[in-house]
Amino acid sequence: MITIVAIAVIGVLAAVLLLLGTSVRVVRQYERGVVLRFGRVRPHALGPGLAVLAPIADRLYKVNMQIVTMPVPAQEGITRDNVTVRVDAVVYYRVIDPVKAVIDVQNYESAIGQVAQASLRSIIGKSELDDLLSNRERLNQGLELMIDNPALEWGVQIDRVEIKDVALPESMKRSMSRQAEAERERRSRVITADGELQASQTLARAARAMAEQPAALQLRLLQTVVEVAAERNSTLVLPFPVELLRFLERATPGETGGGSGAQAAGGQEPVREPGASDGVGPADRADAGADAGYRSVSAPGSPSNHSSTARS
Fold first, then answer.
1. 263 vs 54, 155, 238, CA distance in Å?
2. CB contact at 8 A, 99 and 45
3. Do 287 and 239 touch, CB atoms closer than 8 A?
């Protein structure tokens, strides 16, 4: 009799422990518990800690409140300027109302994924290729608003949406590279032409300054000679400008005329004593006087001096 009572007590204790094991749950710090009692949801979710449920009557659903990172599969579409692209993105979301997340939608994770894919395809069709490549911040904000509107009704908040990569066809990549190369070539030519314009203006001012001061041209010529000689070339070809000749001509004092041809040339006639003979006979002098009506001698670097000799 005592054995039967002991067995009954042990069975009751085992049943009580089993019921306590099924009715006591632990909710983690980053989770919230949604309790359904006989199929009806309790108005408030259970916080973190030890949760005691009514045996058989209560069912507990745990909802993760952490931020979830969900990659959006690459979506292929045609942009507004008729370019085929493949775009993938990533969505960051978290649950803000666990009761709505459990009651209002069957599987909120799958629902958020489908909305994100549809919104991404819509963004691709509304945007141009340049916007997808260079203006992603605005597209990210528009995509976030498109996903966040239905997600709020499910108790889910979208924290951030980012477009990760834009895949282009190889032909489009080559076309864009050629366009970028042509643009860089255009900039290079414009910069070169601008430099030539500035150099020509500076050279024009320098030429006017040298025209006012001819000595500057000679100094520039000497400076050029020094620069070329520093390179130790075997042959030096130095142009001699006409302006320098004119400067030297103006700098040289002019010769005075009125003398004989030999004196204008820088020579002096020898002084002869009276009665001395110069080795030329009288007949020769007469022939020379008859043939030459006049003679002229020009000194180099000065105007020509003409002297006439009358016939005797």
1. 145, 122, 36
2. yes
3. no
Measured distance CA(179)–CA(173) in Å, rounded: 10
| Rounded Cα gap, residues 196 and 106, in angstroms | 73
- Between helix 136-152 and helix 108-126 the angle, nearest 10°, is 140
Model confidence, pTM: 0.56
Retrieve residue 35's tokens: 């309790």
- From CA 93, how far away is CA 100, in angstroms rounded? 15
Q: What is the pLDDT of residues 272-312, one digit of tens each?
A: 444 444 444 444 444 444 343 333 333 334 333 333 333 32
How many Cα neighbours within 13 Å face the side chain of 300?
1
Q: Measure the CA–CA gap between 296 and 304, rounded to whole angstroms.
A: 8
Lookup: tokens for 180: 């970028």
The CA distance from 204 to 201, in Å, is: 5
Which is nearest to 128 in space by CA: 166, 162, 182?
Answer: 166
First to last CA, the chain: 191
